[in-house]
Amino acid sequence: MSILTVKNLSHGFGDRAIFEDVSFRLLNGEHIGLIGANGEGKSTFMNIITGRLEPDEGTIEWAKRARVGYLDQHTVLQKGQTIRDVLKSAFNYLFELEKEYNEICEKLAEVSPEEMEGLLEDMGTIQDILTHNDFYIIDAKVEEIARGLGLTDIGLERDVNDLSGGQRTKVLLAKLLLEKPDILLLDEPTNYLDEQHIEWLKKYLQEYENAFILISHDIPFLNSVVNLIYHMENRQLNRYVGNYDDFVRVYEAKKQQLEAAYKKQQQEIAELKDFIARNKARVATRNMAMSRQKSLKKWRL
Length: 301
Prior knowledge:
The protein is of the alpha/beta class and 301 residues long. The protein folds into 3 domains: 129 residues, 3-Layer(aba) Sandwich (Rossmann fold), CATH 3.40.50; 106 residues, 3-Layer(aba) Sandwich (Rossmann fold), CATH 3.40.50; 42 residues, no CATH class. Helix content is 50%, strand content 20%. The strands form 2 sheets. A 6-stranded mixed beta sheet has the order 5-6-7-3-8-9, with helices on both faces. A 3-stranded antiparallel beta sheet has the order 2-1-4, with helices on one face. Strand 1 and strand 2 form a beta hairpin. The longest helix has 36 residues. The protein starts with a strand and ends with a helix.
């Protein structure tokens, strides 16, 4: 199932184009590495698909009710909240669903058999969502994620206002993982993590059942968790199946093919120029030379 569909996306800043008529689909369960040289538009891409930036042209369409989680390291944490408070707030939408579930239970005694059937179906749907998203083991999940990212060493009862920038980023990442969105958008998530916690995050993402898009300069980490690469280059976004190593092999092979084709073209152009120069003045071969000159002009278009 498609989570995100982008059609004919174009965007730029001033006279500089970042994307030009780009279209693609992101599917459920894809683990994507977003790569490209600095300035090619990775951050712009994230800002556009999360609605922080309007594209010049094109459409961005998320699947109905798709839950999107974005690691925004500039999110403000409220003074007076503990780390535990912030992590448990990842489940707020589930507490709202539990409230809805209880309200339906209260209605059951007062409705007709036909209405009851619909309400029971709604209850079943809510129950499935609560179970699937770990509602009944919230405290255990909070402890598990906090331990994996080193937050228990800081202390879960510590006020978030007293944390360093790196510690705050860890809290935001832990909250995002606890939310278990349909797609995670992760921009350099290994910043501020030591080797032990990077290893934990690597295993977590390898087993993550939903989709994610990852930007990372940590190539070994990137290579170990993705199964697709989206490469930004020359205003285009190209898709490669496999991890980063697979991308490099295919990309280098394509690059060599293009270079070989270019060299061949340049050699043929040089030979045409030489033939024209030698034969244009000769009456017997003038027409042939003029014909090849027309071919040369087409090549240059």
